[in-house]
Write a structure and sequence with these properties.
Layout: H1 7-26, H2 40-43, E1 48-54, E2 68-73, H3 76-86, E3 91-96, E4 108-109, E5 112-113, H4 121-137, E6 140-150, H5 155-166, E7 171-177, E8 200-207, E9 215-216, H6 222-225, E10 239-242, E11 258-262, E12 268-272, H7 277-285, E13 289-290, E14 299-303, E15 309-310, E16 315-316, H8 321-332, H9 343-353, E17 359-362, H10 369-381, E18 386-391, H11 397-409, E19 414-424, H12 429-437, H13 440-447, E20 451-456, E21 459-463, E22 469-473, H14 479-489, E23 493-498, E24 516-521, H15 523-532
Parallel strand pairs: 2-18, 2-19, 3-6, 3-17, 7-16, 17-18, 22-23, 23-24
Antiparallel strand pairs: 1-19, 4-5, 6-8, 7-8, 9-15, 10-14, 11-12, 13-14, 20-21, 21-22
């Protein structure tokens, strides 16, 4: 006899199906929808876990006391995965110049060049860029910002994608006027596909939290620097004076911040000030108020060497694409890379967005312009900015262009050169031990400790120029000799200890617990990868 379901059961099942269909239809009422495409380099991470290995022959060491910069050769999805462990929420500025999907580039997706005849070219591009932007967002600090160069082919799609990832309120667009009106460069060679001459590109600006970031005023121009002096010999250096109140004494009696102050000569000034009375007192206590002569209205001192908030124009002018080609010719004798970005464009972006100790990432590093821009800014203002450049080596771009360029201009800074590599992902004890044995570069990068000061039986100790120490214990047999060395060193050591579980084996360091900050490996790495590759 056939098994017939009761009517009530069928009705409940029908309602359940209706509910699921309704959820699917309402899942995304507005936004960008595309057909996701699988990617070989992403699928590889289901079987293999990315790590770093150092190419010691390419290390550049000039002055140990200066920053160590990083160049990673490998697919940027794998590099970003590693950086999600080493640099989560530590990157202040990201700039990228991804493939524009023009069909004329050598953009490869799953070992195949993507051309204009590919009916899924936009879906492939979005699948490609979305995975990387999601990984990159996690790297940004609270005050972090990402700049993305793009043209009109993918602008609309990229804007919607960034709205989804960063939030619509955290995404803005700048226009770079890259070809001066009087220029006729390249016009005779161009295939006519537009009715307008394309003199511009776009730069999307994506904030981790727009309300937490203020842009700095760029100070590269001499005519700006000439406005500064040091009338009172302030130890903080040259400054210029700025208005801090309305000029009319009765500007707004009922307005915000209307109050009286007394000058050093005893004169009483009533004004509507640009900040509260308590803020005024704090600025005066910090000697940031310049009183001038006895009858002068006080002004605010703004120092040349301190970041100054500004609101840049959304249109970037006076920086030509031609500059970039000439810069490469000056370094190499020929232009050996297509469509590089101008050094002045990169310097302008970094001047408004970075601080003197910022860490800056470019994971489509290409010819390495960002690296050169940071090195030059540091020389100009005494900064300690560091860069991380990530690029694959298609057409030898990394070894023939990016690395040689950095080597030519680095002078007084340092560079570590890494390649991405892999260990098996299957969670066996043997594979966990392999990951520990190959974790050294990742741990040194995370803790910014590269100088090896002790190598013993299954342990190593590193330090940096801020007297920070890193210890790595690779096996049980390394515990006791490491303990003895830690006692002799008598310094606080961030210690990564081999463990097959999440335990940091605190009981074995009980008597020297004040000297070690224990972390279990590979668990600390695997926990991050579980989130990324789930």
């Amino acid at each position: 006899m056939p098994n017939i379901q009761p009517l009530e059961s069928l009705q409940r099942e029908n309602e359940g199906l209706r509910s699921e269909i309704k959820k699917l239809k309402s899942r995304k009422e507005y936004g960008l929808v595309w057909e996701p495409k699988s990617e070989q380099v992403v699928n590889l991470c289901k079987k293999k876990l990315p790590i770093l290995i150092e190419e010691r022959s390419k290390e550049i060491e000039n002055k140990k006391e200066n920053p160590t910069n990083i160049l990673i050769e490998g697919d940027n999805y794998h590099s970003l995965s590693v950086l999600n462990y080493t640099h989560k929420a530590k990157i202040d500025v990201i700039y990228i110049d991804p493939p524009y999907n023009t069909g004329n580039e050598n953009w490869i997706y799953n070992d195949k060049k993507i051309d204009t005849e590919d009916s899924f070219r936009h879906s492939k591009w979005l699948s490609f860029i979305a995975k990387r932007l999601n990984l990159a967002k996690a790297l940004l600090s609270k005050y972090g910002v990402m700049f993305i160069s793009i043209n009109d082919i993918e602008l609309a799609q990229l804007k919607l994608l960034c709205d989804d990832i960063f939030g619509e309120k955290n995404v803005e667009i700048m226009i770079w006027h890259k070809i001066p009106e009087e220029s006729t460069a390249g016009q005779g060679k161009m295939k006519i596909t537009h009715r307008f001459r394309l003199d511009h590109e776009y730069i999307l600006v994506c904030y981790k939290d727009k309300n937490s970031l203020k842009f700095n005023k760029p100070l590269r121009l001499k005519k700006v620097k000439n406005d500064y002096g040091n009338l009172d010999n302030d130890s903080r250096g040259d400054w210029m004076s700025c208005e801090i109140c309305k000029s009319d004494e009765k500007s707004n009696l009922n307005g915000k911040n209307y109050y009286s102050i007394s000058t050093p000569s005893g004169r009483i000034l009533k004004r509507q000030w640009h900040f509260s009375y308590n803020e005024f007192l704090d600025l005066d206590k910090d000697k940031r108020i310049y009183w001038g002569s006895g009858n002068s209205v006080p002004r605010l001192k703004k120092f040349l060497e301190e970041p100054q908030p500004t609101t840049p124009s959304s249109i970037i002018t006076n920086i030509s694409q031609t500059e970039a080609n000439n810069e490469l010719r000056e370094l190499f004798g020929s232009k050996n890379f297509d469509n590089p970005k101008p050094l002045n464009l990169m310097k302008w972006i970094l001047e408004i967005s970075s601080q003197k100790n910022s860490t800056v990432l470019d994971f489509f590093a290409g010819s390495g312009t960002i690296g050169q821009a940071i090195l030059e800014l540091n020389r100009n203002d005494g900064g300690k900015r560091k860069f991380i450049l990530c690029t694959n080596n298609e057409n030898n771009i990394c070894v023939d262009v990016c690395y040689p360029r950095i080597k030519k201009v680095i002078k007084d800074n340092n560079l570590k050169y890494f390649k991405t590599d892999f260990v098996d992902a299957k969670p066996t004890d043997q594979n966990k031990k392999k990951l520990v044995d190959k974790s050294t570069e990742m741990l040194c990068l995370k803790e910014d400790c590269f100088e090896q000061v002790k190598k013993g039986q299954n342990f190593k100790i590193f330090r940096n120029n801020q007297d920070k120490y890193l210890g790595i214990v690779y096996d049980d047999s390394g515990i006791e000799p490491f303990r003895k060395e830690a006692q002799k060193l008598n310094k606080k050591i961030i210690t990564y200890i081999f463990s097959l579980d999440d335990s940091a084996r605190e009981e074995e360091f009980e008597d020297i617990k004040k000297l070690v900050d224990l972390k279990p490996i590979p668990a600390v790495i695997l926990n991050v990868y579980k989130q990324i590759f789930k």
